[in-house]
Design goal:
Order of helices and strands of chain A: HHHHHHEHHHHEHHHH
Shape of chain C: globular
GO molecular function, one term (chain B): ATP binding
CATH class of chain A: Mainly Alpha
Keywords (chain C): Amino-acid transport, Cell inner membrane, Cell membrane, Membrane, Transmembrane, Transmembrane helix, Transport
Number of strands of chain A: 2
Strand order of the largest sheet of chain A: 1-2
Distance between the termini of chain C: 48 Å
Strand content of chain C: under 5%
Largest interface: A-C, 48 and 50 residues
Radius of gyration of chain A: 19 Å
Strand order of the largest sheet of chain C: 1-4
CATH topology of chain A: ABC transporter involved in vitamin B12 uptake, BtuC
Oligomer: heterotrimer
Shape of chain A: globular
Structural class of chain A: mainly alpha
Order of helices and strands of chain C: HHHHEEEHHHHEHHH
Number of domains of chain A: 1
Chains: A mainly alpha, B alpha/beta, C mainly alpha
CATH architecture of chain A: Orthogonal Bundle
Keywords (chain B): ATP-binding, Nucleotide-binding, Transport
Strand content of chain A: under 5%
Helix content of chain A: over 70%
Pfam family, one (chain B): ABC_tran
Number of helices of chain A: 14
Protein name (chain B): ABC transporter ATP-binding protein
Number of helices of chain C: 11
Helix content of chain C: over 70%
Largest sheet of chain C: 2 strands, antiparallel
Chain lengths: 289, 234, 300
């Protein structure tokens, strides 16, 4: 059984799980109307935070992970402040600027190993990675049943209308970014401890593309959308290789086709009628679905 | 009670509002009339905090609102609807109405059912808003606005797209609620006949200037108003 | 002191490349309100074709330049038809066209890699290969050529936009597409023309890049897209001359950081400036505020 995970398919499965976690995290941020192009940076902060705690400070894996996750959440919260001033693509460009800066900084920082990167342990065993994915999805399933989540969606749908009904849109953006940042941080720390080492370019533009593509393909409004999207993003280059097509061609075509033909993603959001709220009391109790 | 003190606003050199002075008492029904582009919606945007005035003060019960962000004004009871309704498209009709913290922390089931029934939304609560037409979208905003227990209700052409009878019915629901709860209303509405019937006072805005305020009967006799608003020339 | 002058010259010639890419962004954004995510990859396509043509023609730079420009225009037409035109009827923000053009650029990158592999492609021409030495300052002919040629190109483009009737139409559409349509200018034809023009410019830039750096890889496209985006946004998206100035400034800044603060990330430096500018001056340095594009909705 365990040998499977050290084979090629097993490694692919773990890579998928880590990307699925990251995409789920970003979908919370994007679902609140923030097109942040720094999910890779938040993930990278989680990864580097955990690696530094583990390797430089000798802190064991679980606590090192927590340290990475907290750092990622803080950085994500700070990035959400940009969303107070900037919208849409302008937010994307500003956050992309930060992401590229952090990667360039990691390349030049000897403490984190510069371009050669950092070693860490192999503590994130296959069961740990897969169980974490299940926990993250379950946590998001719980979150989606709260009033907080409805408010976050309201902000994502129409900021001005959300303000006019009394929703603190700035606070919602910070909260969504912290939630997303925690999940992205978790995926980053798992990435570190699954591979056993990290380099700055792990968290460069191609990681941004993978995360965003996973959410767009799967659907940003649904619980399983990012997970399904991550599976597609991992499978695409493998399928492309079978027919000798470059992975960029596969990703590029996928991006164009999904945006043009099915912008809501493979699994559109919205709950089926039988799952929708049935009474005011249920909503007042904080349950909207 | 709402007081507007010398509100000024211009957009890139074009004056939208020139020193507007207006008040709306609790329980009072004031209608804001005037031609398109007179600055009516701009005024509502300034009252709710969606726009910042270049000068002047917005006071609610004597308390200045200028530095209060839009979402807090709403929580203080300054409640609005939009000229073209703004829906939360990923939420159901019910969730759209309950989206306001003032509704889900305050409104009770009976109130909710009564308002929803009066505005003919009962059968559509679990629909998504993109399944509804613009008239129903206006009704959703109005239902939510009433359930938010406003101290001041700002209605920006709430009956746009409605037939005369539908419009009358919606306005009746609103004024019945007003008589019970005693909040102030500032209404923008183009149907002059309707406006005359329901308003305590009319405020006529023309090119950003308040050219007249007074009871409907009086306004109707004012030459300048007739010319500016009703387009009649003697 | 000579290091300072040396880096100033190096920076200016790098900056000329950035300026050309930034200008491509401004052209397309002005008329089509699209952030072109394929700008960098088209530069790379131009570079690769130029390197092949140079190889076949025994190092003829002018032929290579011409071929690169032509293929840029061809891919511009494809870009417009496949990634921009399908969205024109749908309206909707800046994000969707950025994503489709980005996807188009990724496909180009993949095609280039399929044909040429991912290792660096050399670029040999029998042109401007000498260098002068003035004191301690070394000045390559290629560098000088790239800088001067870029300036000439910019002047020509400036003329085209500000002194021809086609340029006038373009500016009219950039100002207000619906009014321009109302007075008989076809926004579609104009959009096609502008995207092709900006892409031809990108192709030219590819050949100039080859002349200056003598090699490139397929993945360079993304880096150039990001740099161009940076230049265009800092300049304010609507300003031609602003984009040129910011491009040159970016090149010089990077050269200075590399020489005088080698511990600092040269790329990162520019990004920090970008972010600060976006936050405090969302309309850019030379830009006018565009309605509904720059400022956040919950700006209090």
């Amino acid at each position: 059984m365990i040998e499977f995970f050290y084979g090629y398919s097993g490694q692919l499965l773990l890579t998928f799980a880590i990307l699925a976690i990251a995409a789920s995290g970003w979908s919370v941020i994007f679902g609140t109307g923030m097109f942040s192009m720094a999910p890779s940076a938040t993930m990278g902060i989680g990864a580097y935070g955990a690696a530094v705690a583990y390797t430089h400070w000798g802190i064991p894996f679980p606590i090192a992970t927590v340290i990475g996750v907290v750092l990622a959440a803080v950085v994500s919260a700070l990035l959400s402040l940009f969303a107070w001033r900037l919208d849409h693509l302008f937010l994307g460009i500003a956050t992309l600027g930060v992401a590229e800066f952090l990667v360039a900084l990691a390349h030049k920082t000897p403490y984190v190993g510069g371009s050669l990167g950092m070693p860490a342990g192999f503590d994130a065993t296959p069961p740990v990675v897969l169980i974490t994915l299940v926990i993250v999805v379950f946590a998001l399933w719980l979150l989606r049943r709260t009033r907080l989540f409805s408010a976050m969606r309201a902000v994502g749908d129409d900021t001005l209308a959300a303000q006019s009904v009394g929703i603190d849109t700035r606070k919602m953006k910070v909260i969504a970014s912290i939630v997303g940042g925690v999940i992205l941080g978790v995926s980053g720390a798992l990435y570190t401890f699954q591979l056993g080492s990290i380099i700055p370019s792990n968290f460069g533009f191609s990681m941004i593309v993978q995360i965003i593509l996973a959410v767009l393909i799967g659907g940003r409004d649904s619980l399983f959308g990012p997970v399904v999207g991550a599976a597609v993003v991992i499978a695409l280059p493998e399928l492309a290789r079978l027919v000798s097509v470059d992975h960029s061609i596969a990703y590029g075509l996928a991006l164009m086709l999904i945006v043009l033909l099915r912008p809501q993603g493979l699994i559109p959001g919205g709950r089926p009628r039988w799952l929708r709220a049935k009474s005011v009391r249920a909503v007042q109790a904080g349950i909207t679905s | 009670m709402l007081e507007l003190n010398e509100i000024k606003k211009s957009f890139g050199g074009v004056t939208a509002l020139a020193s507007v002075q207006l008040s709306v008492d609790d329980g009072e029904f004031v209608s804001l009339v005037g031609p398109n582009g007179a600055g009516k919606t701009t005024l509502i945007n300034i009252i709710t905090g969606a726009l910042r005035p270049d000068g002047g003060q917005v006071l609610l019960d004597g308390r200045p609102l200028n530095r209060v962000p839009a979402y807090k004004r709403s929580r203080h009871g300054v409640v609005r609807t939009f000229q073209s309704p703004r829906m939360f498209r990923r939420l159901t009709v019910r969730e759209n109405i309950l989206a306001s913290p003032r509704v889900h922390t305050g409104a009770n089931n009976e109130d909710f059912d009564e308002i929803v029934e009066a505005l003919q939304l009962t059968g559509r609560l679990d629909a998504r808003t993109d399944e509804l037409n613009v008239v129903d979208r206006h009704r959703i905003e109005i239902a939510r606005a009433i359930l938010m227990r406003p101290s001041l209700l700002l209605l920006d052409e709430p009956t746009a797209g409605m037939a005369e009878s539908e419009a009358r019915q919606v306005i009746d629901v609103i004024s019945a609620r007003q008589s019970a709860a005693g909040f102030g209303i500032l209404l923008i509405e183009h149907n002059f006949r309707l406006v005359k019937e329901v308003s305590d006072r009319l405020a006529v805005l023309d090119f950003g200037r308040l050219i007249h305020t007074g009871p409907p009967a009086e306004v109707e006799k004012n030459e300048r108003v007739l010319e500016a608003y009703l387009g009649k020339r003697s | 002191m000579s290091l300072l002058i040396q880096q100033l010259l190096n920076g200016l010639s790098t900056g000329a490349i950035y300026a050309l890419i930034g200008l491509g962004f401004v052209l397309i954004f002005g008329v089509a309100r699209v952030f072109n995510g394929a700008q960098g990859p088209i530069v790379i396509v131009g570079f690769y074709l130029a390197s092949v043509v140079a190889g076949l023609s025994g190092g003829n730079f002018w032929l290579a330049l011409l071929a690169a420009t032509a293929i840029g225009a061809v891919f511009g037409l494809l870009l417009e038809r496949l990634a921009i035109a399908p969205l024109a009827s749908k309206g909707g923000g800046l994000l969707v066209p950025f994503l489709t053009t980005l996807g188009f650029g990724m496909v180009l990158e993949g095609i280039v890699r399929t044909i040429f592999s991912s290792s660096p492609q050399p670029f040999f021409v029998e042109f401007a290969s000498e260098s002068f030495k003035i004191g301690d300052v070394r000045l390559g002919q290629a560098q000088l050529f790239v800088t001067v040629f870029t300036i000439l190109l910019l002047v020509a483009l400036d003329r085209m936009i500000y002194s021809t009737s086609w340029g006038l139409s373009a500016r009219a559409v950039a100002e207000n597409a619906s009014i321009a349509g109302g007075v008989g200018i076809s926004p579609v034809a104009l959009r096609i023309g502008i995207v092709a023009l900006a892409s031809a410019l990108a192709g030219t830039t590819g050949a100039l890049y080859g002349l200056q750096y003598a090699a490139a890889t397929p993945t360079l496209g993304v880096v150039l897209t990001i740099k161009g985006l940076l230049v265009a946004v800092i300049a304010g998206l609507t300003s031609f001359r602003g984009a040129v100035l910011i491009g040159l400034l970016l090149g010089v800044t990077e050269a200075m950081v590399i020489a005088f603060a080698p511990a600092m990330p040269a790329d990162g430096f520019a990004f920090v400036i970008l972010v600060a500018l976006l936050l405090f001056k969302p309309a850019g340095i030379f830009g006018r505020k565009l309605s509904g594009t720059a400022v956040g909705a919950d700006d209090r």
